[in-house]
Write a structure and sequence with these properties.
alpha+beta; single chain; Endonuclease I-creI; 4-stranded antiparallel β-sheet; 7 helices
Length: about 230
Amino acid sequence: MPIYKKFNKDFFKKWTPEMAYVLGFFMADGYMSVNSRGSEYFAIQITDKNILEKIKKIINSEHKISKRIRKPTERPIFRLQIGSKEVCEDLRKLGVEELKTKTMRLPDIPNKYLGDFIRGYFDGDGNVWVGFVNKYRKTKTFVIHSAFTSCSKGFLIDLRNKLSGINFGEGSLYKTKKNAYVLKYSVKSSTLLYKLIYDNLKSDLFLNRKKKVFEKYLKIKNAVVV
């Protein structure tokens, strides 16, 4: 007999800041599966164990986080997997499907939770970079760039449209050699992204290393985000 492990089965039934974050993270680094006996599972896997521990805590899960080592030169992958037909059905109602990689679209997110959802997705499949451009000219320029990655072009188009409605620029949407899509933003929109996902934050649901990159840029530029 399988051992029953507790967790909050109602977690995805109601929008909250925590639910929005975990949903965003799941759409970046999660998946659903059905085994040969018809049992349904949802899982999140990532190399950052710390954020997975936070997600496990926020959904009140007793499940174990597993560890898989790919190659000696690569960081291990950590996975939280939970079996629940009810939760998988709730995720489907939010627009998530088993084979979501290339077909997923942006869910209908209440505006008050947009920043939390985007922070979750960004922590899973986003990146931020700061550095100098025009290095070989007399005057170098210190800049910040941020980007979202997805195998679903439609998802990034939806995201770009949503962000352009709140004064973000159009960004640059392009396809990589590995058949993924990237939505990239430059300085102005990247500072707006910082405000959107971190302003008024009342929880520790974020990847600290990404937040620090934004703050490094703001500190060096002596910028005040208001």
